[in-house]
Amino acid sequence: MIEARPDFLQALRRLCDERGLLLILDEVQTGLGRTGRLWGSEASGVRPDILTLGKGLGGGVPISALLAREAVCCFAPGDQGGTFGGNPLACAAALAVLDEVLAPGFLAGVQARAGRLRAGLDALGARLGSPPVEGRGLLLALELPNPDAATRAAERGLARADAAQDRPGLLLNAVRPQRLRFMPALTISAAEIDQALALLEALLRSPR
């Protein structure tokens, strides 16, 4: 995971303006509160010409969307059709998600939970000898010092789960053999964050 720095996005915006190009940003993963703001690009102060959305927009129901500034939008309502275009169930789910994300205090809560997770991961990383956590909001990555450590932790996290013994597992995303990515639900609780951090440390310190 390589974060686009604000100065990079700002330079990209200037370049597009100078050359008469459209700036299109993919916010499928970073949009709708994932970084603690409605759009991930907000932190840079950059306004794209076109923005793409998906995944979190439907809260688990498949949907995607494209937003465009009026000056560059080539569609009138009804122009773009398709088999699943305007699906009532998916659109209802998206509206419910937007109501929740735009509710007063929701994004502030995401920022608070993100701060708790980041602080916990940084503390764990310091004990393990890892570099500082990367990312923003509830989209973070931890680089581990040992080869294949992330892969092994992900395998142990699944193997640990045992419903019969009321023993929770931990679903981890090892995007590289030494790197874990964290994208928890925006509504994750402080208790769940603390439990996940404790389980993660146990998995990483396990000799097997």
TrEMBL record:
InterPro entries: Aminotrans_3, Aminotrans_3_PPA_site, Class-III_PLP-dep_AT, PyrdxlP-dep_Trfase, PyrdxlP-dep_Trfase_major, PyrdxlP-dep_Trfase_small
Cofactor annotation: pyridoxal 5'-phosphate
One Pfam family hit: Aminotran_3
Segments crossing the lipid bilayer: none
SUPFAM superfamilies referenced in this protein's UniProt entry, alphabetically: PLP-dependent transferases
Keywords: Aminotransferase, Pyridoxal phosphate, Transferase
Keyword Mitochondrion attributed: no
Enzyme class: transferase
Entry EC number(s): 2.6.1.11
GO molecular function list: identical protein binding; N2-acetyl-L-ornithine:2-oxoglutarate 5-aminotransferase activity; pyridoxal phosphate binding
Gene3D superfamilies: Aspartate Aminotransferase, domain 1 (3.90.1150.10), Type I PLP-dependent aspartate aminotransferase-like (Major domain) (3.40.640.10)
Highest taxon in the source lineage: Bacteria
Name this protein carries in UniProt: Acetylornithine aminotransferase
Species the sequence originates in: Piscinibacter sakaiensis
